[in-house]
Amino acid sequence: MKGYFGVGVEGISKAMNLGAILRTAHAFGASFAFTVDAHHKALDIFQSDTARSLKNVPYFGWDSLAEMVLPEGCSLVGIELTEDAVDLPSFRHPRACAYVLGRERGSLTPEMQARCDHIVRIPTKFCVNVSVAAAITLYDRTLAMGGYPDRPLMPGGPELGTPGSWDAPKVRR
């Protein structure tokens, strides 16, 4: 997969959610992670981030939106339930971007939304947990940009060893 991506959250207050987001970002190969205006209690993440992602993924903790500095050419993609947002299954992910999600029990601030190059919504009946939204977004990016073969026409997966199939994942013991 070419390009890079970062994952961040604005105004997060729960350490378990932030830890889950960082672990998910690490698992999907994020180039960096960030918070903007995070509550100080949210930064105590080690109970939920058992992968110790901060030892493997650069982390930036900005106190305000004015302090946030992304790499040159990095598009900012807000994940938010708004009327004018693009549904995630129809969204073409930028090659180089940072995804930003909103706080628990709230939304991205109007200032953050104005800073975003794109606003994308996960087409659900109601909001899902912020860490679940991060996982869905990164999974969609992986499918869209990861170079996987087309899915088979019949239920099930392709037979191993046939063209367009992938070998079974290696399981760590």
From TrEMBL:
Keywords from the named record: Methyltransferase, Transferase
Superkingdom classification of source: Bacteria
Region (Disordered): 154-173
InterPro entries cross-referenced by the UniProt entry: Alpha/beta_knot_MTases, rRNA_Methyltransferase, SpoU_MeTrfase, tRNA_m1G_MTases_N
Molecular function via GO: methyltransferase activity
Classification via Pfam families: SpoU_methylase (PF00588)
Domain tRNA/rRNA methyltransferase SpoU type, chain residue ranges per copy: 7-139
Keyword Methyltransferase attached: yes
UniProt-listed GO biological process terms: methylation
Ranges in a coiled coil: none
Protein name: RNA methyltransferase
